[in-house]
């Protein structure tokens, strides 16, 4: 999926202490509650969006831990909820089709005004979409990662 992101780092905290520090905590981001729950050898950070009326694109974050010597390897993977992935994928596909159509019209020899208009429309829609995703979904991902790092450092 194009909206999934992964970050890896090493922590000097033992795996058990890492899990104990985070399990059961709640994160407040943009007045939305995220809960950290233990899932075997990993942690899951799940949004509580039952009471939210607005449409939001929210991540589900998995924190996988593996003990290597005296360090802990941490892999933080954020994925868009299945419920939320339809709209952004449609926008990306729509912008891609407009972009490809503008280049096809450019080489077929259609009218240049239509070609450049299609290219400008697809670029504008994609830029607005990208900025909205940076202020919403990717902001949640950045703040969850920062919270995990801040709670697991000495």
Summarize the structure.
The protein is of the alpha+beta class.
Count helical runs: 4
In percent, how much strand structure appears in the residues?
Answer: 25-35%
Residue-averaged pLDDT: 88
Low-pLDDT segments: none
- Element-level helix/strand string: EHEEEEEHHH
Strand order of the largest sheet: 1-6-5-4-3-2
Largest pleated sheet: 6 strands, antiparallel
Estimate the helix proportion, in percent.
Answer: 40-55%
Tell me the count of domains.
2
Known CATH architecture of the largest domain: 2-Layer Sandwich
Principal-axis shape: elongated
- The top level CATH class name of the largest domain: Alpha Beta
Task: Give the tally of β-strands.
Answer: 6
CA radius of gyration: 20 Å
Helix/sheet category: alpha+beta
Features:
154 residues, alpha+beta, Alpha-D-Glucose-1,6-Bisphosphate, Chain A, domain 4, 2 domains, six-stranded antiparallel β-sheet, 4 helices, 45% helix, elongated
What does this structure look like?
With 154 residues, this protein is of the alpha+beta class. The protein folds into two domains: 5-83 and 147-151, START domain (Alpha-D-Glucose-1,6-Bisphosphate, Chain A, domain 4); 86-130. It is 45% helix and 30% strand. The protein has four helices and six strands. It has a six-stranded antiparallel beta sheet, covered by helices on one side. Helix 2 (86-108) runs antiparallel to helix 3 (112-135). It is elongated. It starts with a strand and ends with a helix.
